[in-house]
Amino acid sequence: MEVKKKMEQKKKTRKRCMGLSYLFNPFPGKRVYYTGTRCFHAYIVLIVELLVVAVAVLVVVVVVVPVVCGVVAAVPVIVVVVVVVVVVAVVVVLVVVVVVVVVAVVVVVVVVVVVVVVVSLSLSLSLSCTLTVLAVRQC
What we know:
mainly alpha; two-stranded antiparallel sheet; 3% strand
């Protein structure tokens, strides 16, 4: 009974990685819910998978289209497909990198703010204690 409650609690606390869908699940057989660095690993796997698909599309277009259409007629098609695939791959990689960088920056800012608040509170408390001790001694 306790194990079941703990599992339900874990399910509630886990969050989905931003931008990952069930279509791109880098860990087959598991849902796309990760904590900690698993999101980062999932993003890396997703980028690699998308780049592999892009290369496969390029190879198919460069090899198959000239055979079917003839070399001269295939050149514009090949150029268009290459440009589209490269642009899409670059945009996807940049979006994922921006998401990871934004999350990292937010984490760093939160940590810095917490440290500054804790240090300033401790300094103000120690200063007030020192002033209180000096005031008591003068009396």
